[in-house]
Write a structure and sequence with these properties.
The complex is a heterodimer of chains A (231) and B (446). Chain A is an alpha/beta fold. Helices cover 14% and strands 23% of the residues of chain A. Chain A has one domain: 3 Solenoid (Pectate Lyase C-like). In chain A, β1, α1 and β2 form a beta-alpha-beta unit. Chain A is elongated. Chain B has 15 helices and 18 strands. An 8-stranded parallel sheet of chain B has the order 5-15-14-12-11-8-7-6. Chain B is globular. The termini of chain B are far apart. The chains are: A alpha/beta (231), B alpha/beta (446). At the A-B interface, α1 of A face α6 of B. The structure holds iron/sulfur cluster. The site of iron/sulfur cluster has 14 residues of chain B, from loops.
Chain lengths: 231, 446
């Protein structure tokens, strides 16, 4: 990285900072330090450049939302919906994430080094999410594609109404949601887990995870499935 | 001797109800269908204009100027939407509709200087190219939703619900999930696809406030943000949308259409458009944002008279979905291919219906080629033919609207007002807050 740019949320608004990140980074690669976030919402949303952004402190809702290309690291905790709809690049949270981390993400990698709260990976569409700790209830709800790797425990109704996302859980699973089922771990699964752990820079035994995927019994609408699943 | 046959039909168990119970008992399935509510409801037909006479001064028929320009999204956006007419095209998805139909809608809207809207499943390049003004929906499913298309949009519509199924998500049955639709939605081909009923990244109005700010940040505060809701608790919902920062509120009454949902939803959830509109206007008034936050009403708008009445009751614009499909030949007994007329009744029979009664959009076998992804059917609407039909329809609506406005003495359609209307029924008078015709009585008010 040839340039380091420092932006300070005590001196600039989030709007000014986002507009700078959208339009004024210039052609060459850069590393951006954002100071004093103090839980401000919508920091670094809509990035579309191969830039490295370090947010030094806790950030609010929708941090790094809809990210493309950029590598954003939050050196603290984040509020709801970090990296929602991520398309590519990487968003890493050194602390914990509140609800809906990586919601609807289409591509790229989301790493939560601590715990993630409920609905982590909800509606995900192809991104990978790695959580160093545990995830809360309804995680990967209606998740369509991509992989959710949880090193710790998973809360109630994991993978409810899953489509093609595969979930790996290192700890205990409180309960599975409608149409989610545990399946045997294959050699391919172990390779995927090892790849994701390496990308997330976490060390765990790939063989110690459980695999959860869709039973696909809700893929075709019929009254019987409807009633069985939700009674 | 055989006794005389006595036929006494039951109101509670009418032939329609009997058919419903028999069907339920036979199949164990509830009915899924397309379009909107078919039951009889209070509508704009229950209102009449008090056009000019001795006490009011009319403008000359189709000659004197009557402005139709409509500006939406003036509250926060750097670039509000400027439309030539107050009639917009409602959100309908590629998936529910064919690519040819989406292109026809875009071209007709562009020709008439109005906007069209994407739907569940995202934006297609064809519709972006053909639409001068395109509203990009942000739906709970987020199928195909991405920042590149977001930045190409002229406005963003946050969809909380729609009139046909407020509180219910969407359905697109497997027969319509073609390879292209599946790819856009990141789903396996051929499965019955469910669109979520809740947004994935926010739940309540406080989160919505921050979500709207995120969308503004993403688009550098350039484009207006609409919030669309099905008409249920309209007064409260409109206030929450305004509080959350909406530039434009869209209220879709229960007559609003859908490509597929449960019949029980279509007929039994939400309130009629006529009842919803005055509630929305009052909510904006109580929030002191009339004129600052614009209001679009939709759900069963069919004619220029409907548009005029909606504007008189306080809407800034209307959105039309089903009317557009009907202009393309929905429920017609024929379709036109390369200038030749072809009988479609056999194709209606294949899906178990007849022209005039069809609501079978969910089957994907639309006999006139509108709500389909099948190559053999979608050719029945060519973009050239479709765009011309839709333009004609929009033109007629606009001419009817201005004719009524002029007769009420207005040189601008937005000057139509509640005072120009009376109601034919007590229900309509109560809902629209206008006097019952021939009286000064507004039920609940005077
Ligand atoms: S004619 Fe086509 S668009 Fe109209 S209701 Fe039937 S299937 Fe739907």
């Amino acid at each position: 990285m040839d340039r380091v740019i420092t932006l300070d949320l005590e001196k600039q608004t989030v709007r000014e900072i986002n507009q700078f990140l959208h339009h004024d980074l210039g052609e060459s690669s850069a590393r951006v330090e954002i100071l004093n976030p103090f839980g401000v919402h919508n920091i670094a949303v809509g990035l579309d450049a191969p830039v490295e952004v370090d947010i030094r402190g806790h950030a609010g809702y929708f941090t790094a939302g809809m990210n493309k290309q950029a590598r954003v690291t939050v050196h603290g905790n984040v509020g709801w919906s970090v990296a929602e709809n991520i398309m590519s690049g990487e968003v890493r949270v050194k602390g914990c994430a509140s609800e809906c981390a990586g919601a609807s993400g289409h591509g790229g990698l989301v790493v939560i080094e601590g715990d993630a709260s409920s609905r982590c990976g909800i509606s995900m569409k192809g991104c990978d999410i790695v959580v160093g700790g545990g995830v809360g209830h309804m995680s990967a709800f209606m998740a369509q594609a991509g992989t959710l790797l949880v090193c710790g425990d998973a809360g109630p109704s994991l993978g409810d109404s899953l489509y093609e996302t595969v979930i790996y859980v290192g700890g205990a699973i409180h309960s599975l949601g409608a149409d989610a089922r545990e399946e045997p771990l294959t050699a391919d699964d172990r390779a995927t887990i090892a790849r994701l752990l390496a990308a997330a820079r976490l060390e765990r035994d790939p063989g110690s995870f459980k695999r959860v995927a869709s039973a696909r019994s809700l893929y075709h609408w019929h009254a019987g499935a409807d009633h069985k699943a939700y009674s | 001797m055989t006794p005389p046959i006595r036929k006494e039909e039951s109101f509670s168990f009418s032939r329609q109800t009997l058919e419903y119970i028999h069907h339920a008992a036979e199949h164990g399935l509830y009915e899924i269908r397309g379009l909107g509510a078919k039951r009889q409801l209070p509508t704009f037909d229950d209102l009449l204009f008090l056009t000019a006479s001795a006490s009011r001064y009319p403008l000359e028929g189709y000659r004197e100027k009557c402005a139709t320009k409509t500006v939406l999204g003036t509250r926060h956006a750097k670039q509000p939407i400027e439309l030539e007419i107050p009639i917009t095209i409602a959100g309908m998805s590629f998936g529910a509709l064919s690519a040819n139909v989406k292109e026809s809608l875009g071209r007709a809207a562009t020709a008439m200087g109005t906007s069209t809207t994407t739907g569940d499943g995202g934006m297609t390049p064809e519709e972006r190219k053909s639409s001068k003004t395109l509203v990009y929906q942000c739906l709970p499913s987020r199928y195909g939703f991405n920042p590149d298309d977001l930045r190409k949009a002229d406005a963003i519509e946050m969809v909380i619900g729609q009139g046909a199924k407020p509180g219910g998500g969407g359905m697109l049955l497997g027969q319509k999930i073609s390879p292209r639709v599946a790819k856009m939605r990141t789903l396996p081909e051929g499965i019955d696809q469910r669109s979520a009923c809740r947004h994935p990244d926010w739940t309540g109005p406080d989160d919505l406030t921050i979500k709207i700010l995120e969308l503004r940040e993403l688009t550098d505060w350039r484009v207006p943000i609409y919030v669309k809701m099905g008409a249920t608790r309209v007064r409260e919902d409109v206030k929450l949308a305004v509080k959350a920062g909406a530039d434009v509120v869209v209220i879709d009454g229960m007559q609003g259409g859908t490509a597929a949902t449960q019949q029980v939803f279509i007929e039994h959830a939400g309130i009629p458009t006529l009842a919803a509109l005055p509630l929305a206007v009052e909510a904006l008034d109580e929030m002191n944002v009339l004129g600052e936050v614009q209001l679009i009403i939709s759900g069963g708008i069919r004619s220029g008279a409907d548009v005029a009445k909606a504007l008189a009751l306080g809407a800034d614009a209307v959105a039309i979905g089903q009317g557009m499909l009907m202009a393309l030949g929905c429920n017609s007994d024929h379709y036109t291919l390369e200038g030749k007329t072809h009988d479609a009744s056999g194709d209606y029979a294949v899906i178990g219906t007849e022209p005039g009664f069809c609501h079978h959009c969910h089957t994907g076998r639309c006999p006139v080629g509108i709500t389909t992804q099948s190559p053999d059917l979608e050719v029945r609407v060519s973009p050239d033919w479709g765009a011309q039909r839709l333009k004609n329809y929009l033109q007629v609506l606009t001419m009817e609207l201005t004719t009524l406005a002029r007769a009420c003495g207005k040189s601008n359609v937005h000057h139509l007002e509640r005072e120009d209307l009376v109601a034919l029924t007590i229900e309509a008078a109560a809902m629209a807050r206008v006097p019952l015709a021939g009286t000064s009585w507004i039920p609940g008010k005077s």
